[in-house]
Task: structure prediction
Amino acid sequence: MGEATGNDEKYQLIIAGGGPAGIVAGIYAARKVLRALLVTPELGGQLLLSSEVENYLGYPSIRGMELAGKFEEHLRGYDIEISAGEAVQKIERENGNFRVATEAGKSWLTEAVIIATGAKWRAMNVPGERDFVGKGVSYCATCDGPLYRGRRVAVIGGGNSGLTAVSDLLQIAEKVYLIELLETLQADPVLVERVKTSEKLEIMLHHKVQAINGSEAGVESLTVKDLDSSETRTVNLEGVFVEIGTIPNSDFVKGLLRMNQYGEIVTDSRGRTSVPGIFAAGDVTTTPQRQLIIAAGQGANAMLCAHDYLLQQRKRSQK
Amino acid sequence: MIDFHAEWCSPCKILSPIVEEIANDYEGRAMVAHADVDQTPNLARQYRILSIPTVMFFKNGELVESSIGAVPKQNLTAILDRLM
Result:
């Protein structure tokens, strides 16, 4: 196993992204003995930002960081080249192949590509949010939660990641507000049941965050609007954890691949994109559910279909 | 340059080796240190560390700049170069 540095030798497959989809694709590629390279800023993807994972097969409950470590160990047990530290920044066609390049200028030639670059946290885009990143606004409850011991915090978003954040923060914070835009929580009932009786938790449904307020020292309050009564309320607190979903990391292939209005790469059941030879898997695609186990499965699917594609190309060139 | 981090923070684990590389690259020119927020709670409180990893840059004893998150190496070296 080597650390790839960039050269002109041609790969059969380059996998962009090292989250669950990319890692599984890497394992499958190695098992097919493809000349493959995985290019990623880090191995683990969003799993590195997850606290407890309870819905992946074989592990009833495991820390995201620990599971990511197991994934990496599994991958590194195979003979596959990995270029870690930088993301893919550009993919271009070059004489029937693809040229894949990173920001710092490493580049490689490949016959096929799997894009598994995942997604990153979505911002609310309300006044104050950007100003207080790192001063009370956080997009990673797992990373920053423990720094809020004894403080008052809010979690924005009532999906699974929001409820997981609430569950973690209830162990640490003095008071936790859960603010959801819709009239109901979207999280799995098992997660809601676990926290809803806590006296430290106040759930505000059908409320919209309007602004995050504070001073030089950091966040001091949150302005929320009750969408039923149209009344606004100021909640004094020091931490705001934004858990309102993700946006796909697909900017680097804009104009090259067909995407939907959200920037998700359109794929078919074989993981094929609008460009033959380029496949995509996981949270960067139009798949409706953002789940670790789904991303992992799609990584395997895309890689096996990419393998079929490579075999067909070979047959065609031999004719 | 101080890298505030913790054992339980995975983005910190991505940044740590980068910080160590910078420590080697800038040996003799800049002082580079890690500070575990669990081991140095007073320091973390003094600088209101509410997100990790946070890298703070000090010049002549004064905090002049900070960077939040697991950022690429060049982001941090750009700040160091500017301050030198």
